[in-house]
Specification:
Number of domains: 2
Number of helices: 17
Protein name: Peptidase M16
Strand order of the largest sheet: 1-5-2-4-3
CATH topology of the largest domain: Cytochrome Bc1 Complex, Chain A, domain 1
Structural class: alpha+beta
Distance between the termini: 46 Å
Family: Belongs to the peptidase M16 family.
Order of helices and strands: EEHHEEHHHHHEHEEHHHEEHHHHHEH
InterPro entries: Metalloenz_LuxS/M16 (IPR011249), MPP/UQCRC_Complex (IPR050361), Pept_M16_N (IPR011765), Pept_M16_Zn_BS (IPR001431), Peptidase_M16_C (IPR007863)
GO molecular function: metal ion binding; metalloendopeptidase activity
Cofactor: Zn(2+)
Length: about 425
Amino acid sequence: MVGIAMPHRHTLALSVFIRTGSLHESRRDNGISHVVEHMAFKGTPTRNCQQINLAAEQLGADLNAYTDRDHTAYQIEGLADDLPTFVELLADIVLNGTFPEEELARERQVILHELTEVQEDPAAMAFQAFDRAAYGASHPAGRPIIGQRANIERFSRDELCTYVRRQYTACNTVVAVAGPLTATRWRALERQVAACFGAMPTGQPNTVAPALWAGGVRQHRLAGSSQTQVVIGFSAPTLADETRGGSVAADVLAATLLGEGMSSPLLDDIRERRGLAYYVACSADVQPLTGQFVIEAATGAKEASEYLGAVAQLLTRLAQDGPQDVDWARARKQLAVRALRHLEQPGRRLETAAQDLFTFGRLRDPHEVLARLQAVSPAEVQAVFQRLVASPAAVALAGHVPTRLREQAHTLWATA
């Protein structure tokens, strides 16, 4: 259990995190975590689907869930006085799903509609192609969270139940709450969580083989698209690397320096000076088991070639010359403000707490994390860019992909 006191808030957020997601799936099971998450809301021995929805909404609460690569989360947010009801409701959903056959037949169609929506979205397909280029098809990191159509159409009730029994165990579960927690409310919560979740089998930690970076160029053409979605990425440290003496701090600061804000080198060059894209961004996607330094943009098919060359020139310049003082100062301040803003967001704090427990077995002090980021030197950031330009990239092109663009991307990025 995790409790985060936020006494200034009037509402409270409760989440149940399960350490299981698409990374824990075999090729045959790809997509099953997402289907289970959908079906958890379709009935328990004491509530049907409509009663589950009404139980939250009649209290004015927001009830939701999502599936990620390394975890599945069930969430509810509402008034603090309704916390006992929230605990009982989430426990019922997570532990007592009956997965009725008739509901599975209906929800299967809903998920297939969701899949079609993803497959018709150039940006979504660019990131699917990027993950496949980064990690290959043999590792779960290279497969989509939503799964494959054939799997979604095939999954049976028995398969879902078997997956839940294997993956939804106590040692893979975190119950976390953030909001106006008084001492009395916390003690009552501890007793109720023990009563509601105490019968969960202990189980063994759900583990994943390391995802080895492959790199390469993949494309996904979509008829009717007028723009080219481009995702360029490189291997980055993971949170798990920090348990072995590594650090993600330099990559996080480098990504912020390169592409956060209109004055950043990436946006200033690509958007403000060249006019090559409306949307362009950079991030260090640092997860417990995967790490990616990613640059993404949507550009015109005629401008895509110039865009690829411009990004290559920009990274090369930063690798050779290092960051400018103005960018260095901006990035450090942006990270500090972002960290403080995250402290004000209960959902963000709960997810971070769950990742900390799953990865480190403890909660990290957010101010300690910020201090590590602020301690990174300009030389360390320059070293990140030097590593990037010397490393094979994963590149994905989606939407309207000009004929020779893949060859250019391979020449620029995938042969380092």
